[in-house]
Design goal:
Largest sheet: 7 strands, parallel
Radius of gyration: 17 Å
Number of strands: 7
Number of domains: 1
Helix content: 40-55%
Strand content: 15-25%
């Protein structure tokens, strides 16, 4: 186990599967104590980290609810006494429909988790990270935060909003010791992608064909980028929306 984050605490929302799970495991592999957050009680990521000799806890939280998020950060401090890194990754795809057919319920739920949730997390994370004098926040946007996708108005709006929110927080924190960046994954093989394709080869091929590299990305490839952005090797990077997308937005 590497130790570049030894003694530090990393929080990962949406940490029970996909990109979140890969990132939690990656942080633990670098020596961080990891806080796995999700709205579903699922200890698989926790068990993976503990089995490899890492230290972690699980906290159940709905990131769209202020009371939940405030309590979540309080539990982090009670357990570990500090917070150094946060990967605000929790998100949902919502329901696919053209803009005129998008329901108010779908709009509110998608924006509530994907955008409001990240704002709430930063609202309560920043004061605790400030106490350490240094730290990093990474927010999960998407290539859908950089370009449009027909049929996903709420999702696309939420992910564009994440980038604007990230840039604002980065400017506010620039002289306070906290770097704030966004990661913008391309087409990644995750449970969310499985839901979108229904695990049907034809649908999977359609998504794969969107990628210039000719394949979907793996969750670990996003996790590697997140951990790198949190490291001192990225010490001059803040306010960036970094595409990790196999060339998707280069087209």
């Amino acid at each position: 186990m590497e130790t570049i984050f030894k003694g530090k605490v990393a929080l990962v929302t949406g940490g029970t599967s996909g990109i979140g799970r890969a990132s939690a495991v990656a942080f633990a592999g670098k020596g961080a104590k990891v806080v796995i957050v999700d709205w579903i009680e699922n200890k698989e990521t926790l068990n993976l980290i503990k089995a490899s000799g890492g230290e972690a806890i699980f906290i159940k939280c709905d990131v769209s609810k202020a009371t939940d998020v405030k309590a979540m950060v309080t539990k982090v401090i009670a357990a570990f006494g500090r917070l150094d890194y946060a990967f605000n990754n929790a998100g949902i795809e919502g329901t696919s429909a053209p803009t005129q057919d998008c329901s108010e319920e779908n709009w509110d739920k998608t924006i509530g988790v994907n955008l409001k949730g990240i704002w709430l997390c930063m609202k309560y994370e920043i004061p605790e990270i400030l106490k350490q004098g240094k730290g990093v926040i990474i927010n999960c946007s998407s290539v859908a935060g950089l370009v449009g996708f027909a049929g996903l108005p709420a999702y696309v709006a939420s992910k564009h909003g994440v980038i604007g929110l990230t840039k604002t927080a980065a400017l506010e924190c620039a002289k306070l010791g906290i770097r704030v960046n966004a990661v913008c994954p391309g087409v990644i093989k995750t449970p969310m992608m499985d839901r979108l394709t229904g695990n049907k080869k034809e649908a999977e091929d359609q998504f794969t064909n969107l990628e210039p590299v000719g394949r979907m990305g793996q969750p670990e490839e996003i996790a590697n980028a997140v951990v790198w952005m949190c490291s001192d090797e990225a010490s001059f990077i803040t306010g960036l929306a970094m595409a990790v997308d196999g060339g998707f937005v280069a087209q």
